[in-house]
Amino acid sequence: RTWSRTSSGITGFLRRAMMLLLPQHHTKHTKFRIGPEFGDCLDLIVRLGMPDMPTAIVTHLASTTRILCASPGYLAHHPAPATLQDLAAHDCLCLRRSKSMTLVNRWAFGDEENREVVTVQPRLSSTSCEVIHDWALSGQGIAYKLMCDVHDDLKSGKLVHVLPELSGEGIDFYALRPHRQGARANVDVFLRELRAYLRRCGGFSYRAA
Asked: Which of 112, 172, 183, 203 is least surrounded by Cβ atoms within 10 Å, i.e. has the fewest?
């Protein structure tokens, strides 16, 4: 049996990727359990960010960045911001942490040496990254989204990159296995399939081998 739970630790893009790849994988290989957090005898975790799990076997999958985006319809009625400070006059769409309900309204840009953080007051907020995505597509406001989640919509023109000269927070995707498990051939095969799939998609960067 395969587990894939909704969590702030996994994006809509990765959830869709696993829903696509797992059935194909399991027609050829032994099934295994996958989720966003260790527990319940899971064999593999795929998540954003490096957790404090020193005994886990860690594989870096890919990196992406957060960007500002909005629909053409929204921008037709609201002049695009010229600076981050202009966001105060816009309808912003914010994520909330699913467990604590903490509002994620501090949006960071730049690198460690030239970092700028703006605090926005959202018009709408949700614990679901998919809901934020849908709101942005329907013209409800400006969202701070992962590039990998919105790459296809930017390419098709459904969304517009706002303040494209600014680079948002960098995010790493990792796969983790319990140390007790050791190497399992079917998990290794799935990770190769997942990494190959990510490389076929836009919105990611990769570390040098």
From this structure: 112
pLDDT at position 139, please?
98
Per-domain residue ranges of the chain: 12-63+171-200, 64-162
Model confidence pLDDT, tens digit, residues 17-55: 766 676 665 556 555 565 544 444 567 778 788 767 777
Q: Is the CATH number of domain 64-162 2.60.220.30? A: no
Does the global pTM surpass 0.90?
no
Give the Å distances, CA to CA, from 4 to 19, 47, 72, 120. Answer: 8, 11, 33, 32
Start-to-end C-alpha separation, the chain: 33
Find all residues with CB under 8 Å of 27, minimum gap 6, and list them.
Answer: none
